[in-house]
Amino acid sequence: MCAQLLRGTRNEATIQAIADAAASAGVQLHHLSWDYDHHRMVLAFSGTPAQVKRAVLRAAAVAIAHIDLNRHRGAHPRIGAVDVVPFVPLAGLMREQAVAFSYRVAKSFARRLRVPVYLYEYSAREGRPRDLPTLRKGEFEGWIGKRLTGEREPDFGPKRLHPTAGATIMGVRDPLIAFNLNLHPPDVAIARQIARQIRAERDANPALRGVRALGLWLPTRGVAQVSLNITQTEATDLFRVTETVRAMAHALGAEIAATELIGVLSADDAARALQSALGLTQIEARQIVSRHEP
């Protein structure tokens, strides 16, 4: 089971304490990154279900003790100090089992930490919102102090946001690629136009199937960024998406200056991108190996 925790923080001591708390549960850490302008850290790890549950609860307790969303501002939308906890089954669990596991973690999370939890994607209950943008709509500032009822009623926990930690969104989802493209010249208007074009075309353009996009300005880095979530990785691949965005940028007088991978990339997704990029007739994930130094 792979889990990824996204939290709002810039404090390096807090970031390390959160990562250490997760590691103390025995999980394998795959990725840790943070960005000043996004004001957000990403921690990805894997382990047995029991290890992953311990890691989520321990790391979240540290995050909630140190992060106050009343003093938090960043480029990326968020509703909680522990904003999103996605679970991706890697081996040994059927999807139904993974969903049942997510319910157990969500219930414990809400009870122990007194933070409301919304279930999303495959874990969402019948008739409830299941996509991240809908659940995040209004963000922390839009819901703090209000009673959470109707569609906004959480699946577990209090019926009001935690006064400093907000709410958490949690559930089982398919593998997702978080990928950022930085533009030259650094014009945020172009980044936002590209993001709008992606959202307008993604249902009709096979290269953009399941791609979510935001255009962001990162002031401390002087970067205009198109921030992507590729949610249907079997329908398209990272190279096709990148080349499609490159063409959009070129039409608007810009270029892709650099790209950033956030979180993990599965071997299957890496193979699909490599096949497109190199024009390979065939490549399998098992052909991609990791070299470990003795």
Describe this structure in words.
The structure is a single chain. With 294 residues, this protein is of the alpha+beta class. The protein has two domains: 2-172, Formiminotransferase-cyclodeaminase, Chain B, domain 1 (2-Layer Sandwich); 177-287, Formiminotransferase, C-terminal subdomain (Alpha-Beta Plaits), CATH 3.30.70.670. It has helices at residues 12-23, 49-66, 95-113, 132-136, 139-143, 188-201, 238-251, 267-278, and strands spanning 2-7, 28-35, 40-46, 82-88, 117-119, 168-172, 177-184, 211-218, 223-230, 255-262. The longest helix is centred in the middle third of the chain and has 19 residues, at 95-113. The relative contact order is 0.13. The mean pLDDT is 92.
Q: Can you summarize this structure?
A:
This protein has helices at residues 12-23, 49-66, 95-113, 132-136, 139-143, 188-201, 238-251, 267-278, and strands spanning 2-7, 28-35, 40-46, 82-88, 117-119, 168-172, 177-184, 211-218, 223-230, 255-262. The protein has 294 residues and is an alpha+beta fold. It has two domains: 2-172, Formiminotransferase, N-terminal subdomain (Formiminotransferase-cyclodeaminase, Chain B, domain 1), CATH 3.30.990; 177-287, Formiminotransferase, C-terminal subdomain (Alpha-Beta Plaits), CATH 3.30.70.
Low-confidence stretches: none
Annotated CATH homologous superfamily of the largest domain: Formiminotransferase, N-terminal subdomain
The H-and-E topology, N to C, reads as EHEEHEHEHHEEHEEHEH
What is the third-level CATH name, the topology of the largest domain?
Formiminotransferase-cyclodeaminase, Chain B, domain 1
| Helical residue percent band | 25-40%
Q: Report the mean per-residue pLDDT as an integer.
A: 92
Distance, first to last CA: 27 Å
Oligomer: single chain
Number of domains as seen in the coordinates: 2
Structural class: alpha+beta
